[in-house]
Structures are given as C-alpha cells and as structure tokens.
C-alpha cells in the first residue's frame, strides 16, 4: 500500500501546471475522519474517474470540488487560486438524482441559466428574449435527443432522458469543470452505454475537465483518461472508523485502451456478494 | 381477487360515495318521523320540509326588520372574514416560512419563536383581541390569523427545507442569485404544498370564524346559529350547518382544482386527495 501512496506523490511532482490542485486535504464529520492526506493535480481537459468501496468518501471529495462542502484541513486550488467558498458557474454538476427542476419543462430547464443571466430581478425572460433563448438551445436539445420532448416535464421522461437533460443543463453554462456523482448509476445497462458515448462525445467537443464518481469499474476504465481509487491505507481492526480514505491508486488510462480493466478486488476491498 | 386489487368503476365509485350521504338523510327522516308521531310540534328533529321552508325563508325572503336576505348577508360577511384571515395568513406564511426554510440565519432567529407561538391555543387570545381591536371585524380576522398563520408558516418552511439540496446547488452552478432562486426555484416548488397548507388551514379557520362570530358579532353564519339557538330553532341550525359544510367543501375542491391546473407538474405521479 505504501508504494501506491509513493506513486501518487511522484505523479504530483511530474505533471504540467494543474488546473485543480488538491493539497493535503482531509475531511472529518464530527471527528470521524472520512478523507485524509488527499493530494492530487489535475490538468485541464482530463477525464478523471473516481472509484472506491461505498462509504470511502468519493462523493465527499466531489462535493468539496463543488464547494458544497469545505475541507476540514488542507486546500483545493483552482487555477492556482483557492476554490471559491460556494458553488459557481465554472463548475457544473450532475447528480444521480434531483438534478433537473421538476416544475420546469425540458426547454425551460435548459433556458433557466440564460434567464438568470438575462434578468437580475425576476430571473425570467419574456417575449422575444425568451424566444431567442429557447431557440439557442435547439442544437443542444437535438444533441441529447430531446427535441421532440421539449414541452414535457421531467417526471414525464424516462430515467435516461432525465439524465441526458441533467447533463445538457450542466453544459449550458459552459463550465470549465464538470462534476458527476454516479450520473448513470440508476440507468439500465443499454441506456448506460448510450449515455457513456454521448458523454465522451461531449467531452471531446468541449475539452472540459471531468470528474466522475462511479461504482462501476468498467465504466471508470472505459471513460477516463485517469482513474483515481479511493481507499483506506491504514486500518485499525478494533476501530474501523479511526482512519479516513485517501487516493491509493492513480492510474493513467490513455495507453491502456483495449486492455481489459483491472479487477475491482485488486484495487480496493470489495464486499463479497453480487456487485451492485 | 383480493379486495385491495379490485377497483370500482366510475359509476360504481359515484354510487358508493352517495351511499353514506343518502343513508344519513334517511336515518334522520325516520327518526324525525317517529319523534313527530309522539309530538307533532317537536323542535329537536324537525321534518326535512320544515327545514327547507325555514332555509328558504332566510334565503329568499327579506328580513322583516332589516330588509336583508339573511342567508346571503350572513354568508358574504363570513366569507369576507374567512378570506381576509386566511389571505393574511398566507402572506405571513410565505414571507416567514420561505425565510425560515431557505435562509439559515432567519431560521436560527425565528424557527423556535414560531414553534412556540404556534402552541398558544388561539381561543385563549380571543379576549385579548377583543380588548385590543374592539368588537369589530379586525378582532375576528385577527383570531383566524393567530389560529392559522403559525402552522401554515411552519409547513411552508418545512416544504422549503424538503426541496432537495441538489436543486439549490444546481441553481447556484447555473448562476442564480438568492432572489432568483427564491422566485424561480423555491416559490414555484412550494406553491402546490402551500395550497395544501391552505386547504388544511381552512379547517381551523372555520372553527375560529364561527367561534368569534358566536361570541361577539351582529352578522355571519356563526352569529345566526348561536342567535337562533335561544329559540331551539333546529330547523335553521341544521340547514346552516349543512350550508357551512357545503361552502367549506366547495372551497376545498376549488383550491384543489386550481392547484392541479396551475401546477400540473406536481400531480404527474400517483393519486392525490
């Protein structure tokens, strides 16, 4: 295990100027450590997939990148400056659920950001301005295959359609960084594959940095340019809660395309029984 | 098939819904009939036709003393009080409920206070209201507000807090200011729940309205009932109770219908009452 930690530090020293720099970050809830000694440098345009056993703090890490939570100690730098203390438009987010607004139709979900920008007072556009805002989303609607469903409400869409809408909504602000927390976790395998292709296409077009938490190691391997594995380095059998998790493996994946993915059990402890 | 899996057709459902109403009327008619066999001028269970006559007189004949059509002046006076009281409560619930639910500092400052206020039995405040506002309309409306606003405020705050954090975070990543989140995310999402809170709040609102009218008033549905009580005029009281119930029912249905039409997105899943 110590070799893996060593490796993380080596990588951190050798990469070009980082867009996101995580410096010795730890996170504790009521004194219980969740994450400790997390160090990471990520260059712009990377596609980082994050895997690990459940409860290992990968979602917590993502929420810290989003500023939904703050590190208990250490620092996260964005382009060399401390991360803003609250969510901003430069970091988009796709959650597993509740990502789209149920009271807005598909097209209104997409124009909402323009409406926020267009009217400080009401956050609402009317007449011609609204028409223009809606038309500007047509291309995006077609990319995600929801042009025919533009007048429907999210609850009238399938799970896959809702997640496509969620991704499109996050793209409207053209964020530099897209954060995704198990975005396809609730989807059927077939739809999942389609969504993965859509995501790769969008990533290649926009060249943004993506952090994606997943519990599916095949997905992590297939999509990412870099796979981060979160796990506990230190274990106290008497007090399983005594230590937090950190990044134990940091695998560059570019040159590995075509090779079979490593088994999850080789990277972190996997509970016996059928995988989720 | 198990009974939980058997669903009535629409006509059957309608018929089933009518059964308890019709049974009540028949039961009353029979009981009234036997009482009047003993004593034809029985006041306790007047015949349906006598109640109809009495109700018709109040509805369609001008009062000999004032020249008013009493049923309609009573109804409009009561509804104005009810509407004003509940309207003010809704405004209070929106301003404070949304503030408490959405902004942590306001929540810290006001949530315990509102929780305490909502536990005061409103009717104990009535004497205070009569002393401060006099015996006019203000005291009656104030009683309805005192009785309904705290609970409505709490349920509005709860509705705001039940909005998934994910959506509020998402709105921030889309560049929304606090005010924009209020107008485009929070308010639209709680409005259907606010209508539900109004519908539930109307039940105590009616109680406080009738109580206030019974104690100090010169008009209104509650005033009339408690006035004619002195003459054991069950032929007026019973139809008035039925009339009040009908009004309450129609208002409830109208609100529900409005909510379903205005907030269609909130009714896409499952059955609602």
Keywords summarizing the entry:
heterodimer, A: 276 residues, alpha/beta, Rossmann fold, 2 domains, six-stranded mixed sheet, 9 helices, B: 273 residues, mainly alpha, MetI-like fold, 10 helices
Look at the structure and name the CATH superfamily of the largest domain in chain A: P-loop containing nucleotide triphosphate hydrolases
Low-confidence stretches of chain A: 1-13
Strand content of chain B: under 5%
Task: Specify the CATH architecture of the largest domain in chain A.
Answer: 3-Layer(aba) Sandwich
Unreliable runs of chain B, pLDDT <50, ≥5 residues?
A: none
Average the pLDDT over all residues of chain A and give the rounded result: 84
- In the CATH hierarchy, the architecture of chain B is Orthogonal Bundle
Overall average pLDDT of chain B: 93
Output the number of helix runs of chain A: 9
Count all strands of chain A and give the number. 10
What general outline of chain A do the C-alpha atoms trace? Answer: globular
Q: How far apart are the first and last residues' alpha carbons of chain A, in Å?
A: 26 Å
- Percent of residues in helices of chain B comes to over 70%
Say what the CATH topology of chain B is: MetI-like fold
User: Terminal Cα separation of chain B, in Å?
Assistant: 26 Å
- The total of beta strands of chain B comes to 0
Helix content of chain A: 25-40%
What number of structural domains do the residues of chain B give?
1
**CATH structural class of chain B:** Mainly Alpha
């Amino acid at each position: 295990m110590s070799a893996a930690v060593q490796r993380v530090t080596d990588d951190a020293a050798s990469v070009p100027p980082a867009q996101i720099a995580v410096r010795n970050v730890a996170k504790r809830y009521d004194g219980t450590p969740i994450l400790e000694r997390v160090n990471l440098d990520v260059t712009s345009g990377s596609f980082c997939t994050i895997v690990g056993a459940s409860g290992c703090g990968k979602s917590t890490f993502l929420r810290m990148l989003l500023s939904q939570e703050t590190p208990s100690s250490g620092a996260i730098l964005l382009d060399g400056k401390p991360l803003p203390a609250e969510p901003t438009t430069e970091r988009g987010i796709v959650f597993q659920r509740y990502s789209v607004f149920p009271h807005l139709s598909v097209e209104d979900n997409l124009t909402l950001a323009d409406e926020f920008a267009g009217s400080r007072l009401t956050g609402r556009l009317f007449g011609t301005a609204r028409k223009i805002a809606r038309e500007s989303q047509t291309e995006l609607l077609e990319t995600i295959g929801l042009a025919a469903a533009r007048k429907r409400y999210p609850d009238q869409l399938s799970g896959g359609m809702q997640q496509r809408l969620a991704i499109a909504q996050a793209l409207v602000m053209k964020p530099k960084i897209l954060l995704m927390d198990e975005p396809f976790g609730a989807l059927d395998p077939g739809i999942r594959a389609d969504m993965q292709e859509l995501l790769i296409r969008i990533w290649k077009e926009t060249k943004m940095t993506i952090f994606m938490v997943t519990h599916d190691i095949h997905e992590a391997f297939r999509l990412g340019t870099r796979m981060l594995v979160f796990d506990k380095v230190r274990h106290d059998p008497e007090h399983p809660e005594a230590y937090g998790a950190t990044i134990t493996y940091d695998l560059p994946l570019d040159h590995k395309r075509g090779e079979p993915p490593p088994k999850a059990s080789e990277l972190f402890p996997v509970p016996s029984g059928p995988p989720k | 098939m198990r009974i939980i899996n058997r669903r009535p057709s629409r006509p059957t459902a309608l018929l089933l819904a009518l059964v308890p109403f019709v049974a009540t009327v028949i039961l009353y008619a029979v009981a009234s009939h036997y009482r009047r066999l003993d004593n034809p001028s029985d006041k306790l269970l007047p015949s349906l036709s006598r109640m109809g006559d009495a109700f018709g007189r109040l509805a369609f004949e001008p009062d000999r003393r004032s020249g008013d059509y009493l049923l309609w002046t009573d109804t409009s006076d009561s509804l104005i009080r009810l509407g004003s009281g509940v309207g003010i409560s809704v405004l209070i619930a929106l301003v404070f409920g949304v503030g408490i639910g959405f902004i942590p500092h306001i929540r810290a400052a006001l949530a315990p206070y509102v929780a305490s206020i909502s536990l005061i039995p409103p009717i104990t405040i009535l004497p205070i209201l009569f002393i401060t506002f006099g015996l006019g309309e203000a005291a009656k409306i104030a009683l309805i507000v005192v009785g309904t606003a705290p609970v409505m405020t709490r349920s509005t705050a709860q509705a705001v807090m039940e909005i998934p954090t994910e959506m509020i975070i998402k709105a921030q990543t889309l560049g929304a200011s606090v005010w924009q989140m209020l107008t485009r995310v929070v308010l639209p999402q709680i409005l259907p729940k606010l209508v539900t809170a109004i519908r539930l709040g109307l039940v105590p609102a009616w109680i406080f309205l009738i109580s206030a009218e019974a104690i100090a008033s010169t008009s209104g549905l509650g005033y009339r009932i408690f006035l004619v009580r002195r003459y054991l005029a069950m032929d007026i009281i019973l139809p008035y109770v039925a009339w009040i119930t009908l009004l309450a029912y129609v208002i409830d249905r109208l609100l529900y219908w409005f909510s379903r039409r205005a907030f269609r997105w909130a009714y896409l899943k499952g059955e609602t009452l």
